[in-house]
From TrEMBL:
<dbReference type="InterPro" id="IPR020904">
    <property type="entry name" value="Sc_DH/Rdtase_CS"/>
</dbReference>
<comment type="pathway">
    <text>Siderophore biosynthesis.</text>
</comment>
<dbReference type="InterPro" id="IPR051122">
    <property type="entry name" value="SDR_DHRS6-like"/>
</dbReference>
<protein>
    <recommendedName>
        <fullName>Dehydrogenase/reductase SDR family member 6</fullName>
        <ecNumber>1.1.1.104</ecNumber>
        <ecNumber>1.1.1.30</ecNumber>
    </recommendedName>
</protein>
<dbReference type="Pfam" id="PF13561">
    <property type="entry name" value="adh_short_C2"/>
</dbReference>
<keyword id="KW-0560">Oxidoreductase</keyword>
<keyword id="KW-0520">NAD</keyword>
<comment type="pathway">
    <text>Amino-acid metabolism.</text>
</comment>
<comment type="similarity">
    <text>Belongs to the short-chain dehydrogenases/reductases (SDR) family.</text>
</comment>
<dbReference type="InterPro" id="IPR036291">
    <property type="entry name" value="NAD(P)-bd_dom_sf"/>
</dbReference>
<dbReference type="InterPro" id="IPR002347">
    <property type="entry name" value="SDR_fam"/>
</dbReference>
Amino acid sequence: MGIQTRVLDVTKKRQIDQFASEIERIDVLFNVAGFVHHGTILDCEEKDWDFSMNLNVRSMYLMIKAFLPKGGFTEKLVPWADVVMLAQKSGNIINMSSVASSIKGVENRCVYSATKAAVIGLTKSVAADFIQQGIRCNCVCPAKERLTPHLCKKGYKPETIPKRALKVFLNRQKTGRFASAEEVALLCVYLASDESAYVTGNPVIIDGGWSL
């Protein structure tokens, strides 16, 4: 069937349920939507906390629940229950977490780190609950700074970042360089493939040694 794409707001349950109803089969679910709030707990207003938790954690809860069957596990049976993961007796869920989480304390990343620690907990719980039903669930934990196309569009390129700031960023990376988006993507491809069939419930770190 190949890769299918949809445009939807993953904070809206109705849109997610509609999306799930249109899918004939799902083998890999990659939850990657997220937001980075900058600041300590004193800089985090309730609206910042709520928005971060809603997008970074609740969206994953909604997406995962939509693609696990309700029949036999909850009171209501959804129309697409015969095509979701547990009905298939196979499924692979990948969640995007971060080294800035329960793995490592990071300055000015209070609510972001809290959400990404929650993602690790969610990942482990789903993996433990459904391992015997053929479901795998892992999360990817990249380093804090990555030169992604998104960052480059915002102007965060080596040639545009002030030299002092760039030096601070690079000093945090023991390898002396940033990770590329491609390197993180290749890890995701591995976790999505049959080559990682014996891997589940793991926060897989890709940070160039930053958390050492």
